[in-house]
């Protein structure tokens, strides 16, 4: 009886963990540049000693992050950018370290500091980028930021900085507690001149809403099945107890 309870209990617990991952993906379906977390289940034999396993339980794992590109949405805003193909935009994390994102919904604060929609400072060649007051801001394909000064004669532009664009091996990346990507070794990635951006465009989340909703239903049904097994084990135990009393 205890084996039946153990298998059902572990299965229900792992279904809940998988549902949490799936729910987080659904919650970020409208988050610019979001990358979905993956979840997979595998069987884990339990050995009570030498010989064959006494039971097998399931375990939900996070094998990684889905780094496939999301859909591109044209906005026409000067500060909106999307990374074309592979690569990331470098930003300053909450603790001051370097982190990476695909979210290109850029804005400036009251001091002119360039930041993402989530408020993280965007890094350039010498640290956070500050954009002075300008009539127009242009971000080139290579990440070069140019401005047209207010009242400038002839409308000439001036280059003020260049985005730090990187392209580390995604296998070496992990998501931190703030949803940004960082290298597992804690180091900063080198700038990559091959990474390019598209101005006036943002990349949407790569979460597939239909697949995530179907997965949510499947996980809910699996959880219900595990709970029914627990209820059956309770009923069997009650019947066994009754039979012992009759004996």
Largest sheet: 5 strands, antiparallel
Rg calculated over all Cα atoms: 26 Å
Stretches where pLDDT is under 50 for at least 5 consecutive residues are none
The sequence of SSEs as H and E is HEEEEEEEEEEEEEEEEEEH
Characterize the overall form: elongated
**Proportion of residues in β-strands:** 25-35%
| N-end to C-end Cα span | 20 Å
Whole-number tally of structural domains? 2
State the secondary-structure class: alpha+beta
Overall mean pLDDT? 89
H/I helix tally? 2
Helix content: 25-40%
User: Oligomerization state of this entry?
Assistant: single chain
Number of DSSP strands?
A: 18
Describe this structure in words.
The structure is a single chain. The strands form seven sheets. Strands 5, 6, 9, 10 and 14 form a five-stranded antiparallel beta sheet that branches. The chain has a three-stranded antiparallel beta sheet with strand order 11-12-13, with no helix packed on it. It has a two-stranded antiparallel ribbon with strand order 1-2. The mean pLDDT is about 90. It starts with a helix and ends with a helix. α1 (about 1-25) runs antiparallel to α2 (about 210-245). The chain has two helices and 18 strands. The protein folds into two domains: about 1-65 and about 205-245, no CATH class; about 70-205, no CATH class. The chain is about 25% helix and about 30% strand. By secondary structure, it is of the alpha+beta class. It has helices at about 1-25, 210-245, and strands at about 40-45, 55-60, 70-75, 80-85, 90, 100, 105-110, 115, 120-125, 125-130, 135-140, 145-150, 155-160, 165, 175, 180-185, 195-200, 200-205. The longest helix is centred in the last third of the chain and has 38 residues, at about 210-245.
């Amino acid at each position: 009886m205890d084996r039946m309870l153990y298998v059902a209990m572990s299965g229900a617990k792992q279904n809940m963990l998988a549902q949490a991952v799936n729910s987080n993906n659904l919650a970020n379906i409208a988050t610019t540049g979001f990358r979905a977390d993956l979840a997979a289940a595998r069987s884990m034999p339990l050995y009570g000693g030498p010989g064959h396993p006494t039971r097998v339980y399931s375990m939900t794992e996070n094998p990684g992050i889905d780094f496939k590109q999301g859909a591109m949405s044209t906005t026409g805003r000067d500060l909106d950018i999307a990374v074309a193909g592979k690569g990331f935009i470098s930003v300053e994390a909450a603790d001051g370290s370097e982190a990476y994102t695909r979210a290109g919904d850029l804005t400036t604060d009251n001091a002119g500091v360039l930041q993402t929609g989530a408020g993280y400072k965007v890094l350039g060649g010498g640290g956070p980028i500050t954009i002075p007051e300008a009539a127009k801001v242009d971000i080139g394909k290579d990440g070069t930021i140019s401005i047209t000064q207010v009242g400038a004669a002839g409308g000439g532009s001036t280059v003020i900085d260049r985005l730090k664009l990187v392209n580390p091996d995604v296998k070496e990346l992990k998501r931190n507690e703030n949803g940004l990507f960082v290298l597992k070794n804690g180091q900063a990635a080198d700038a990559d001149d091959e990474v390019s951006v598209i101005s006036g465009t943002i990349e949407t989340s790569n979460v597939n809403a239909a697949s995530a909703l179907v997965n949510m239903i499947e996980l809910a049904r699996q959880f219900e099945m595990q709970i029914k097994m627990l209820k059956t084990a309770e009923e069997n135990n009650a019947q066994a107890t009754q039979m012992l009393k009759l004996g």
